[in-house]
Structure formats: structure tokens, C-alpha cells
Amino acid sequence: MMRGCSSRAKQNQDRAVCMTNCPTLIVTVGLPARGKTYISKKLTRYLNWIGVPTREFNVGQYRRDFVKIYKSFEFFRPDNEEGLKIRRQCASAALNDVRQYLTEEGGQVAVFDATNTTRERRGTIVQFAEQNGFKVFFVESVCEDPDVIQENIVQVKLGSPDYTNCNTEEAVEDFMKRIKCYENSYETLDEVLDRDLSYIKIMDVGQRYLVNRVLDHIQSRIVYYLMNIHITPRSIYLCRHGESELNVKGRIGGDSGLTPRGKEFAKKLSQFIQSQSISDLKVWTSQMKRTIQTAEAVNVPYEQWKVLNEIDAGVCEEMMYEEIQGHYPLEFALRDQDKYRYRYPKGESYEDLVQRLEPVIMELERQENVLVICHQAVMRCLLAYFLDKTAEELPYLKCPLHTVLKLTPVAYGCKVESISLNVDAVNTHRERPENVNIHRTTKDALQTVPPHF
Amino acid sequence: MKHRSHPEQHHGKRPRVPAAAASASPQDGMEDKAPSNPRELTQNPLKKIWVPCKNGLPEKHISQRKVCMTNCPTLIVTVGLPARGKTYISKKLTRYLNWIGVPTREFNVGQYRRDFVKIYKSFEFFRPDNEEGLKIRRQCASAALNDVRQYLTEEGGQVAVFDATNTTRERRGTIVQFAEQNGFKVFFVESVCEDPDVIQENIVQVKLGSPDYTNCNTEEAVEDFMKRIKCYENSYETLDEVLDRDLSYIKIMDVGQRYLVNRVLDHIQSRIVYYLMNIHITPRSIYLCRHGESELNVKGRIGGDSGLTPRGKEFAKKLSQFIQSQSISDLKVWTSQMKRTIQTAEAVNVPYEQWKVLNEIDAGVCEEMMYEEIQGHYPLEFALRDQDKYRYRYPKGESYEDLVQRLEPVIMELERQENVLVICHQAVMRCLLAYFLDKTAEELPYLKCPLHTVLKLTPVAYGCKVESISLNVDAVNTHRERPENVNIHRTTKDALQTVPPHF
């Protein structure tokens, strides 16, 4: 056990598996424009979604906050004493915040995003981690493909605050010179010299990986995730099944079929998909009748996933909200108090849903163009992953019937287009009411129930 | 923007070679399709899967599997000097893939050689200048590849593991050609190790007991085997980052300390890499047991979330004593999120982790029923379950097949861990046990996992040693054997023939 680590087993009795006993410091390594920030942000998003409190610390951002106005690549010249001093200070400030996050703010993973291209700098970080009882895991990105680097610069550097007052050629030229400043002193992670470190070296955008000394569960999951993501352009389409019989009755759960309007939506969905001219579209559904009926109308091969089934409402299955309030007023109030963690009796919580959807997210990362026909709670969970929503926001994301969300990765995030297919449907979105007290009146409890037949 | 380029096919794209389980749904010619009337759906009575139907009869439909593992069959090819763990990896990987539902078989060329040559004389057979030996070895490799082809193209196999040294680029090239001709994807698994202690331990564990050395004493066997290894060393061409950059492979170095992974093409290769990166060979034991006897157990009722009976609590105490007597270093204890396993763990008095995925199989509408009541209310369901207990899904519940899928992360974490005690439930324990003991889907639901009995599993050689330790506290029997009559029109008497006694 590392010095300073404490066993968190007792606190973690409720979690699926104790991720790690010590906090973990992930450290990026690589020349500029190799995707370090892309990887940092994506990894942070993924870890937070699966329930591991994670934050990224971008040293470039510290530098921008400190230096205010970026003049040119000269700042990064290896003989620029003033520049070096500032950069070292920024790195220290970032590490300080890392320490605070991991020891006082309940963070479990910190991603330290900087070039870290010299063995000396990495040695300093390892020392810092040892002093504080953190495990260190390096993520290096190595790439010499000029097309990839060029595309990278176009996608994320041109829009950077550093280059707001430059035109494209100026920015590209300056950035190339910036990269050059690092090249001479770049010491890649070495199989022999760095054999005692834990790391993954990603080569040529994921064509090849070198993995050394994976120490624990969280590092193993991080490696698996990094080996499954790619940067090939594609779009992910999310939608719910067409309106169902139970939907119109204001009842939750169950396994009913589509209403005539739901079938109309399915037809419109088919037309929409064709109009998009998507190459090699994969279509996934749950194993519930309403999503499969919807997919049947789209008339492409589809795969059924049991884990895409709607959240299990347990004893409340097929009830109206009014009935839940009538039979289980306490449960109904508890759910409004913490909709993410609340588990239906003999059912599931949103938190459970996220855990069972993790393989779907992993496979979505591997795939390219996919249409997922699913359910309200499921769609909220998937959307929260792509749009980096918190556990508090997730259960209230708006996912109306008969609307397709088209997600396209762009720069460091995800572009969302919401396409309504113009077929009427009931509203199934129930906002959090004002009064969540367990002694509230029925009127207060049912204040936000959407209208139904 | 430059995409990742793959030598064969891009993951996610339709294969050039038609998949074995191709769908009847149209693929091409979609451009001019007016939305026709969608097909009606019917629910398969056994698995409760909705499938399209015509005139009330199910139509042919693509795989309802969770995810299409791969479009083509996959040929996994081991690479490495003798005593580097190739057969250990082959067998373990095969066991894992079969358990998660991917039909896999291993083809050990050494076994073909033993069947052909009958009596092994000495390492001289493997000398690179032994023309006779080379000829035989090539024939054995060909025979094995022939069986691979038959398994993957005619017998419904999806993955074949070709276990041999395959240490030259030339031999590997031949295999790649064979795969291309047959439309198989190839994935190499190389094991590289120079640690003499590891190699020595390997020889002791699995070579000394080999049929090749039944008539030798230990020193003779070790000496001969070392010379055997030497025969391969001069011509050994390890997978090279440059020369072999177009191949898909994982190179495992120093028993998992380091890995090089190149061109993972699809989902199944990604899962294989993840699995191989999580297994280890550190000696340890896994203890499996059920919760102590519960209130619903004694009433003959299934499922639910009841507490322990006094006898169940007695078992929990005995379990605590047993665990202490075993003097296990760093024992992890896992339970489900059901009261009866947690109550049991509480008595053991060590920190434990609760896993929701370890919860007992969900019996849906049959939760908390006695078998007699299931027969009374759902005689058809009860019969279907006896017909195919592995695939049968309770209405609004789960099947054993579903259970295996949700337990996969538990197996993965068990592989990562060392000493672990898992306190779980009957169906769950059957699934975990089936993984460790390589039981088929047919055997799995009938494995005996009685209450108040601990199974201690210790990896040894290529398999798992099982010790069954009864803690001598009486409990009801909850094991219901498959009755003789599984026909849906059987009598109640026939249906209930094998129900164990209860209060």
C-alpha cells in the first residue's frame, strides 16, 4: 500500500466495486496537437458518467489565465527564461489544485493535461504523487501523421483564445513553430528507462498501443476505454419508440405496443433515416415491443439489446403517477428528492441504469453511425454521457416522443441537432415539483404530472 | 481527415464475406422503398423475445444477441516459444468466450502430434534439421487447420484458437493466407517471456505431467524440455512493430507486465484484448457460497428478499470461523444487494462490497412463489422452463442466459483480484461455477450448489481444483432436478415430481 492511502472499503459498500483505494493522477504526455486535451476531456466525461468523481486540469488554461495575452510561439522557446518560469509556476499551481481536489474535495481521479515531454518533468510529478499518496498513470499520444496533426490544428487550435486575432495561415504557422519548440527535448516513454511506470502509449490515433504495469481496476477500465475510442467522423441518432398505448394512458413502464400516432412516427422515422443517406447505419433497439415495432417500420436490420430496456419501476410498473401517489406517497416524495439515486421498490434507479448501459456506451464508442431506438430514462442516461450532464441534471433531460437527437462529435464536445418528426404525441416529461417534502399534499405531489387520457 | 485504415474491414461495416447468421431483412435496394406495412410481432414463448411474424408464425430474424460480436469467424493464433503459456491462454480464452456465448474451440497442434506419433522419444524430434520430424509437424498443423475450417464454416463455430508455436514469419504467413481464403479474421496472441523462474514453474506445473514425459523423472524431463525450447530459439521471429504492422495482434510480455496491441479490428478482438490484459497467474483461491438459509427457502418459495433463519445465522457464524481458519491474506468479500447475503457477510465481520449484479435471478411474475404455485398458475411456463432451463426467461424476469451477461463484469473483476469470497445465490453461483469449471449451457442450470456449503476454487495447471466444504449446518434442499416429463401437456404430478421437500 502506498504511504498516505487509506482503505475506502467501508465507505464503498454501496458501490459496485471499489475502484481504487488511493486517488489516481492521470498524466498526459505528448507534443502539441496530439490529442491530449481531447483525450483528457473525453476520459473525464466517461469517468464522471460511470460515477468516478474526476476533474481535468489543463496547464495551458492556467497559462492563459496568467499571461492574459498570447503573443507568439516565442513564449515557448526553450531558451526563454521568463517563459519557462511562468510555465513552471502554472504547472505548480495546477498540481496544487490537483492536490486539493483529490484530498479535500472528494475527487478520485485528476487528469493533469500538459505536454510533460521530458523525463525530468515527469519525475517531478511522480514525486508529487508519492508525497501525497496518489497513484500515477501516464497517457502518452504519439503521432507523426501530418494530416492528422493538421486536422487537429484546424479543429481545436484555430478557435483557441491564443489565436483569436490571427487568420488561418498565421495561426497554423505559429502553431507549427510552437510544436518545434518541444521537439528537441521530447523524451518519449521508453520501454526500458520507464519500465517501472504505469502507462499507456497510444500510437497513430489508436492503431497501436503499448501498455505497461496496469495496477488496478480503474487503470484497467481507463485502458479499455482509451482502446475503444476513435476519431472517425460519424453521427449517433437517439430517439424513443413511437408513442405507446401505455404512454397515452399516463402509465409508466410495461410492454405495450404503438398507438396509431406511434406507427405514424415510425414511418416518418424511416423516411428521415433514408433522407440522411447514412452509410452503414447500425440500428439498435431494446427487447421491448414498442422499440422493436418502431425499428420494424424503419426496415433495416437491427439488433435487440436487453440492457436498453426501460428503467424497471418495480412495484410501480404500469401505474399512473396518480396511482403511485395514492399507493406509495412516501416513495413518490423520495423520488422527487433525489431522482438519480432513488430506486423503485423491486426496481431500479437511474444510477443502476447508468451501470447497465455502460457496455452500450463502450460499443457506441467503437461504432460509427448508429441509431438507438430506446426509452425515456435510457435516452436521458445516454444523452447525459454525450453532453456531459451531471447526475442532478440527468433525470430531467428533455427527451420527448417523436423527436430524434442527432449527435455529432466536434472539437472537444458534441453537436446536438433536435429533429422533431412532426407527429403529435403525449408529453411524458414530469418536472421536479416545488414541494418534495414527504408530508406534502397530493395536490403538491401531482403538480407537474403531464396531461393524459 | 484521415481515417484509421484497416487491412480487411472497418469495424461497423458490412463484411465482404456474408456472415453465417445473415438476416432475412433487405440490405440493398433501400433507395426506392416506400414505407411498407411493418411486420407484426409475436413473442417467443421461451425467451420472451419479440420477433416479426407472418400469419402468426415467427419469421427468420437476425441474431437477438446483445451485440454482433463479429461479422466473420475469427481465427486466434498463438505465437511463442514452448513454456510461455500459450496453451494456458488458449484454454482460458476458449473457456471465457464459450461462457459469454461465443462458440469457441481450441486446436492444439501438439495434441495432433501426440495422436500421430504415439510415443514421444526425445527433444530430437524437434531439431530443426530433423526432416522427418518437420514433415510430421507440418502435417499435424495442416490437419488442425482443416479441422478449424470445418468448425468455423460447417459446425457453427465463431472463434477457433490455433494453439502452436508459430514462431516463424513464414508459418504465420501461411496461416494468414489460409484465413483469407476462407474469409476468417486473424488475431495473433504472442507470449514473450525470458524470466527463468517463470519458465521453470511452467515446466513443473504442466510439462512434467504431460503424456510426453510419463516415463521420465523430473530432472530428465526438465533437461529434455529445455533442449526442446532451444530447437525453436534460433528461428524465432517475434512479432515486429514494423514488419508485422498490418497484422492484428497482442504481444504479452513478462506475464502481463507489458502489452503491445496492434490493429484491433472489431468488438470480439477488443473483448479478447481486455480479457487477456486482466488475467494473471498469481496463486490465489476463490471461495463461492450462498447466503445462509433464508425464511423463503424453508417455505419452498423462490426469489424475494427475506432474512436468514436461525440455521442460516448459524451458518454465517461457522462461515466466519472457517474463513479465519483458512488464514487468507487480503481477502475481499463480495455480496449481492439482497438482505440474506449481506446478513451472512455481516457475521463474517470483514469489510465487504455489495454488487447489485450479484442479485439472484429475477423470477418476474413468479417471484416468491412455490413451485407448486407456479405449476398451478403458469403450467405452460413451468414446462417451457424444464425444456430449456438455460434460455428460458421468466415473464417480466430473467433467464440464466441473461444472468451470465450481467455477471460478466464480476468474472472480469474476479480475474483481476486474488483471494475473494463471493456470498451469492443459487442461480448466480451456478453461473460463476460454470465459468470456472467450463460447464456447458445445458449443465449450468443443474449444477449442485447446496446451502451451507463453501466451494474453494484454486487454479492449477490448465484448470481449477474444487474443494467442497460443508460447514455442517442443516438446511433445506433447494435443488430441483429436471423431471422426466417436460411436455407442456404433462400432469401436475409429473411436473412436481422433482420438487424438493419444504415446510
From TrEMBL, chain A:
- Mind telling me what this protein is named? 6-phosphofructo-2-kinase/fructose-2, 6-bisphosphatase 4 isoform X4
Which residue windows are transmembrane per the record? none
> What are the positions of the active site?
H241 (tele-phosphohistidine intermediate), E310 (proton donor/acceptor)
Annotated SMART domains: PGAM
Entry keyword annotation includes Hydrolase: yes
Q: Where in the numbering of this chain does the 6-phosphofructo-2-kinase domain appear?
A: 18-233
| Annotated Gene Ontology cellular component terms | cytosol
Keywords noted in UniProt: ATP-binding, Hydrolase, Kinase, Multifunctional enzyme, Nucleotide-binding, Phosphoprotein, Transferase
Its lineage reads: Eukaryota, Metazoa, Chordata, Craniata, Vertebrata
Which GO MF term does the entry hold, naming one?
A: fructose-2,6-bisphosphate 2-phosphatase activity
By sequence similarity, the record places it as follows:
In the C-terminal section; belongs to the phosphoglycerate mutase family.
One of its GO biological process terms is: fructose 2,6-bisphosphate metabolic process
What is the organism of origin for this protein? Stegastes partitus (bicolor damselfish)
Q: InterPro entries, per this entry?
A: 6Pfruct_kin, 6Phosfructo_kin, His_Pase_superF_clade-1, His_PPase_superfam, P-loop_NTPase, PG/BPGM_mutase_AS
Q: Where does substrate bind?
A: R240, H241, G242, E243, S244, E245, L246, N247, R290
Automatic annotation (TrEMBL), chain B:
Kindly give the CDD domains that the UniProt entry links to this protein: HP_PGM_like (cd07067)
One Pfam family assigned to this protein is His_Phos_1
Q: Which residues form the 6-phosphofructo-2-kinase domain?
A: 69-283
Source domain of life? Eukaryota
Q: Which InterPro entries match?
A: 6Pfruct_kin (IPR003094), 6Phosfructo_kin (IPR013079), His_Pase_superF_clade-1 (IPR013078), His_PPase_superfam (IPR029033), P-loop_NTPase (IPR027417), PG/BPGM_mutase_AS (IPR001345)
Q: Which PROSITE patterns is this protein grouped with?
A: PG_MUTASE
Instruction: Name the UniProt key words of this record, in alphabetical order.
Output: ATP-binding, Hydrolase, Kinase, Multifunctional enzyme, Nucleotide-binding, Phosphoprotein, Transferase
Gene3D superfamilies attached here? P-loop containing nucleotide triphosphate hydrolases, Phosphoglycerate mutase-like
Q: Where does substrate bind?
A: R290, H291, G292, E293, S294, E295, L296, N297, R340
Any one cellular-component term (Gene Ontology) = cytosol
Q: What is the active site of this protein? A: H291, E360
- State a single Gene Ontology molecular function: 6-phosphofructo-2-kinase activity
- Renumbered to this chain, the Basic and acidic residues biased-composition regions fall at 1-10
Stretch list, region Disordered: 1-41
What does the record list as GO biological process?
Answer: fructose 2,6-bisphosphate metabolic process; fructose metabolic process
Instruction: Spell out the family assignment given in the record's similarity comment.
Output: In the C-terminal section; belongs to the phosphoglycerate mutase family.
Q: What is this protein called?
A: 6-phosphofructo-2-kinase/fructose-2, 6-bisphosphatase 4 isoform X2
As recorded in Swiss-Prot or TrEMBL, the protein's gene is named LOC103365889
